[in-house]
Amino acid sequence: MEKIEHTTVPTNGINMHIASIGTGPVILFLHGFPELWYSWRNQLLSLSSLGYRCIAPDLRGHGDTDAPPSSATYSGIHIAGDLVGLLDHLGIDQVFLVGHDWGAMMAWNFCWFRPDRVKALVTLSVPFFPRNPNIKFVDGLRASLGDDFYFCWFQEPGVAEEDFARMDTAILMKKLFSAFDDLLFIPKDIGFSGLQISNTLPSWLTEEDINYYANKFDQKGFTGALNYYRAADLTWELTAPWTGLQIKVPSKFILGDQDIVYKMPGVKEYVLNGGFKKDVPNLQDVVVMEGVGHFINQEKQEEISTHIYDFIKKF
């Protein structure tokens, strides 16, 4: 870990912290919620040893990267702008792009907007969701899963932050890392803090890992991370010109069959029965890992590194 370099790069009006290691073709890793560059620590080490330059930023709002307060600055367009600025600053023309959770959604967006900058794509947990012009993104979730679905509960500014503050952050992180292997509903009168979720340490994390996350979220707060959820409808509005546009970048998709996303209505059928391939015609591989949950890149570190390497080495 001490070989990983940490630098700050100015991009798109913010200062972005990046972790990097290795030389060779560039792999850019995008993390999800409630995560940081640190979620890719194992992939950085293993793939850099195989001849790649691995770069993992703290995305806007997270860790040691700036966190503008307004959720209106967290759309997919803003995040793509951050990434273009990052690559331009580093003098990098094209990357292999890897994303998990929100990082996967931002990776799909990036391939929509700037396919010229991506050699190939590996996404974990979240497939491409084509834009439905007839209903806003969050309204679609409300219609199928209700107001208590966690994504909907996160919409109201301050509510989740106030609820999270009722818990020690290390315990909160353990609960969050245990919460996304089933559909997560948060009744308004109970809140996340009132849910009976295990706060024991997942087998794939150490106390040191938990404390790293907890310390960074203690310093930064959760608003930046939650603003991705709150900007989902803004992204929907801004991406109207891309409605119906396929993603043509060579792609591989991996998720666990115990992932909350896989259990959402229609997702399994979309991924397996041809809809996904229709929207992403150069989707070359779909891997469903049995018995694996949402935080797949941490839970199955070596397997995911191998899956990434086996795909990108072809290009």
Describe the structure.
The protein is an alpha/beta fold and 315 residues long. Helix content is 38%, strand content 16%. An 8-stranded mixed beta sheet has the order 1-2-4-3-5-6-7-8, with helices on both faces. The longest helix is centred in the N-terminal third of the chain and has 15 residues, at 76-90. It is globular and about 50 Å long. The model has no long low-confidence stretch (mean pLDDT 97).
Name the helicity range.
25-40%
What is the total tally of β strands? Answer: 8
Termini separation (Å)?
Answer: 28 Å
| Classification by helices and strands | alpha/beta
Name the features.
315 residues, alpha/beta, 14 helices
Give a brief outline of the structure.
The chain is an alpha/beta fold and 315 residues long. The protein has helices at 41-48, 76-90, 102-113, 137-145, 150-153, 159-164, 169-179, 207-220, 223-230, 232-238, 267-272, 275-279, 296-299, 301-312; strands at residues 5-11, 14-21, 26-30, 53-57, 95-100, 118-124, 251-256, 283-289. Strands 1-2-4-3-5-6-7-8 form an 8-stranded mixed sheet, with helices on both faces.
Topology readout:
Blueprint: E1 5-11, E2 14-21, E3 26-30, H1 41-48, E4 53-57, H2 76-90, E5 95-100, H3 102-113, E6 118-124, H4 137-145, H5 150-153, H6 159-164, H7 169-179, H8 207-220, H9 223-230, H10 232-238, E7 251-256, H11 267-272, H12 275-279, E8 283-289, H13 296-299, H14 301-312
Parallel strand pairs: 3-4, 3-5, 5-6, 6-7, 7-8
Antiparallel strand pairs: 1-2, 2-4
